[in-house]
Specification:
The complex is a heterodimer of chains A (103) and B (565). Chain A is 84% helix and 0% strand. Chain A has helices spanning 2-10, 13-46, 48-52, 63-101. In chain A, helix 2 (13-46) packs antiparallel against helix 4. The termini of chain A are close together. Chain B has 565 residues and is mostly helical. In chain B, helix 5 (79-90) packs across helix 16 and helix 19 packs antiparallel against helix 20. The longest helix of chain B has 50 residues, at 358-407. Residues 1-33 of chain B have low confidence and may be disordered. Classes of the chains: A mainly alpha (103), B mainly alpha (565). Chains A and B meet through helix 1, helix 2, helix 3 and helix 4 of A and helix 7, helix 8, helix 12, helix 14 and helix 16 of B.
């Protein structure tokens, strides 16, 4: 039974579509987090003066503090984007594929 | 008001000391003036927390019948519950007290660390959380070995897990001993560790993953609540102005504006490769910690796994922003304060009781003995929750991977496996107590680097390769995994922390504290080359088995079901 539905899933073009779309999203978002975080880390490593510059002449707050908090918030937002996409786009696709396989 | 509370407190404390009827009280009716007061608030709150968690353990024990109950809480945990438990499992006392202390000493630099500790979470969500839930049963080795040879891959994965778990346990045990002993000096370092070890053994052997999960959920609630109150207290003191908070901190800190302008620990030299290596270690290490990965087997389905990471990431990110405020608050309220500083004439930063105390004293500065007691109990709860998760992860690697799959080759019953698991919990608890005591005076600064490096260089890449890359074979996974484990250990031993500081062998052979920058690429290359050149028939079968694995991984077809009670 499981084997039968597995071969039906494999032959279903919607399944290939699902994997392609979801993997594209997952690796794109992974790349975004890597760029976001390692952008920050590389600035720490090679251009700390950008980060340590105060946000204004009258302030002691360095730019890097906003960037750091921005990376944290950005990570949370990207996490939210994935969950939203998975709930609204991919779950219905999986349900469809499973319905098809159990016919 | 404050003096009244204090005199009441000291009255209660001396009354308690007398009532205790200890040898000390009998031998010397008037306690020596050097004897620090008994921290009654902290003890009362420890006791309440322990009573509640033991009640939960009893409740959980009544409902823990099968192996799935024991290892995975019956797979009945919801997304929100698991999100809190993830936060409770991950936010250790080291990150609460440690990051606050790092900010207290170095200012802005502490934030760079916090960011690194958060960014592993999106990676876990995008690449592994749902696939773990779909493919695995109880341990991440289930997933890594899904279509590969069980014996060699599980052995490698279990060795990676156990090294991470045991060293992480040592770090937590030493932290617990020092913290409890500092807060309640009447309890010795050794007794503190024995208390922690004994509680863990009770929680985990009787209540399994259900008790562990609820201890973590309660701890997460307490820690987030406590940290929120502290941050609000700081902001009230600073008139809700971040500008004023940071300006006051710059004025009060002996290094002044440097705390806003240093991207390395103050006084250290900038080192680009080390910064990048640290970043890689924190990000991918998070995604390879066995006790964290294990949490994804407790939820009902892949959708709950996904939601739980979103909740967990929000809680953890929020928490790190709070610790940043707390660290700066401590610069304003704790530094320069003769009540907390060990010797003002030497340093206005160095505190009584050691380097991890800024957050604890800040709670006292904000809310007196009562709030100090609360935060101390929260820190204690934090250690118990993290250690429970670690112990269960270590025991499951020993019983589920080594005993049931490698030694018994899958022929043992679930009941036998759980029995072995409980024995392993007791053994790990005792090992943690003994090593915790043995490491009291040791320099344990390398523990984070060690555990996160192995998680980042062995556990994480092999997991991702086995799930995403058709070409991975048993040989590639095993050789790559061991390169990650032993490469990390070897480079750490000849690195500056262990070679120079711990062993005193002179200048380090390998100049970096974090080896991930070199080891992670090596693991990927070795796994690739060994897999590609693997011409064996079994290797070919493993590549062909990828499609069946992918269907289950991507759709959840055939995944372990939640059990209804």
């Amino acid at each position: 039974m499981a084997k039968l539905s597995a071969s039906r899933i494999l032959n279903n073009p919607a399944y290939r579509q699902l994997i392609k779309k979801r993997d594209t999203l997952a690796w794109t978002l992974t790349a975004c987090v890597l760029v976001l975080y390692f952008g920050f880390v590389l600035m720490v490593a090679f251009a700390p003066e950008i980060l340590t510059h105060p946000i204004s002449d009258t302030s002691v707050i360095p730019v890097g503090m906003l960037v750091g908090v921005g990376v944290i918030l950005g990570s949370i937002v990207l996490t939210g984007v994935y969950v939203q996409q998975a709930n609204n786009r991919f779950d219905p696709m999986i349900e469809e594929i499973m319905r098809d396989a159990s016919k | 008001m404050k003096t009244a509370t204090k005199s009441l407190f000291s009255f209660l404390a001396s009354a308690a000391l007398l009532a205790a009827g200890t040898a000390l009280a009998q031998g010397a009716p008037a306690p020596a003036p050097a004897e620090p007061p008994l921290n009654l608030h902290a003890i009362a709150m420890f006791v309440i927390f322990v009573a509640i968690t033991l009640g939960i353990t009893y409740w959980a024990a009544m409902r823990t019948k099968t192996a799935t109950d024991f290892y995975a809480a019956g797979r009945g945990i919801t997304g929100l519950q698991n999100g809190l438990a993830i936060a409770g499992d991950y936010m250790s006392a080291a990150s609460f007290l440690g990051i606050a202390a790092l900010v207290y000493m170095n200012g802005f630099y502490g934030l760079i660390y916090s960011v690194g500790w958060l960014v592993g979470w999106p990676i876990i969500l995008f690449l592994i959380a749902e696939r773990l839930r779909n493919l695995g049963k109880f341990t991440y080795a289930d997933v890594a070995s899904f279509r590969l040879q069980q014996g060699p891959v599980r052995t490698m994965a279990a060795i990676g897990s156990l090294i991470v778990v045991i060293w992480y346990l040592i770090g937590q045990a030493v932290g617990a001993g020092q913290l409890l002993h500092t807060l309640v000096p009447q309890i010795s370092y050794q007794i503190s560790i024995v208390i922690v070890g004994a509680l863990i053994i009770i929680y985990v052997t009787f209540g399994g993953m259900k008790a562990t999960t609820w201890v973590q959920i309660i701890k997460a609630g307490l820690l987030l609540g406590g940290a929120t109150l502290m941050a609000i207290g700081v902001m009230v003191h600073e008139g809700f102005s971040f500008e004023k908070l940071f300006a006051d901190a710059v004025a009060d800190h002996p290094k002044h504006l440097q705390i806003m302008q240093s991207v390395v620990p103050i006084g250290a030299k900038a080192n680009p490769i080390e910064s990048i290596s640290l970043g890689l270690t924190l990000m991918f290490g998070t995604a390879g910690l066995p006790h964290i990965l294990m949490r994804f087997f407790t939820v009902t389905d892949a959708k709950a796994a996904r939601k739980s990471v979103l909740y967990g990431t929000c809680f953890i990110g929020y928490f790190y922003i709070l610790t940043f405020i707390i660290g700066f608050g401590a610069i304003v309220l704790v530094a320069n304060n003769p009540e907390y500083v060990a010797d003002l004439s030497k340093s206005v930063l160095a505190l009584k009781g050691g380097g991890s105390m800024p957050a604890v004293y800040l709670s006292h500065a904000l809310g007196g003995d009562f709030f100090l007691g609360f935060i101390a109990a929260v820190a204690f709860a934090t250690i118990l929750a993290v250690v429970s998760g670690l112990t269960l992860a270590g025991a499951s690697a020993l019983s589920h991977d080594i005993y049931a799959s490698v030694i018994k080759k899958g022929k043992s019953t679930e009941a036998e496996e759980v029995r072995v698991s409980k024995l392993c919990v007791v053994a790990l608890g005792i090992i943690a107590i003994l090593l915790g005591i043995a490491f009291e005076k040791q320099n344990v600064a390398y523990i984070v680097a060690l555990t996160f490096s192995i998680a980042a260089c062995a556990n994480f890449p092999i997991l991702v390769l086995s799930v995403f890359w058709r070409g991975l074979t048993t040989r590639g996974a095993v050789v790559g995994g061991y390169v990650g484990i032993f490469g990390s250990i070897g480079l750490l031993i000849i690195g500056p922390t262990v070679w120079t500081k711990v062993m005193g062998m002179g200048p380090a052979i390998f100049p970096y504290d974090f080896p991930t920058f070199f080891v992670l690429p090596a693991v990927l290359i070795v796994s690739y080359v060994v897999s590609v050149t693997d011409r064996s028939a079994s290797g070919q079968n493993e590549r062909e088995a990828f499609e069946a694995q992918e269907i289950r991984s991507e759709t959840g077809l055939g995944a372990e079901m939640a059990v209804a009670h």
